[in-house]
Amino acid sequence: MEFERGAPELAAAVRRLFDAHRHKTIATLRRDGGPRISGTECEFRDGDLWFGSMWMARKAVDLRRDPRFALHSGSDDPPEGDPSTWSGDAKLSGRVVEDAERTEPGGERSHVFRADIDEVVWTRVGSPADHLVIEMWRAGEGVVQFRR
């Protein structure tokens, strides 16, 4: 994965955030171009990000029609008293490639998607806790960090 090769420290932090919670939130595009938010699970395997969908669920239909997506890691609330110890949250976006269909135990079919990642963002509270630290990676551009 280009992201892991180009930004290994950021990739490790983002992976920890995605691995910290089972359920993530994915945004896809409806037929009319409007956003659709769905729950999903994902996993990093063999250097790639993978996720699935129930057979012909709205999320899968959206992705088959328009492969663009955004995925949010989920996060805990910053600790009271010292928000700078908060690990933050992560977002990534890109396009999916439908890799295969699989048959689940019980005979149900499902979709399997591999993500081609274009952008990754890690947001956390700085120290002192009077600003946010945002690290962003974009394909072909590398990592930039800014404060707000």
UniProtKB/TrEMBL annotation:
This protein's record includes keyword Oxidoreductase: yes
Organism this protein belongs to: Phytohabitans suffuscus
Superkingdom to which the source organism belongs: Bacteria
GO molecular function, one term: coenzyme F420 binding
GO cellular component labels: cytosol
Keyword line: Oxidoreductase
Protein known as: Pyridoxamine 5'-phosphate oxidase
Gene3D superfamilies referenced in this protein's UniProt entry, alphabetically: Electron Transport, Fmn-binding Protein, Chain A
Region (Disordered): 69-109
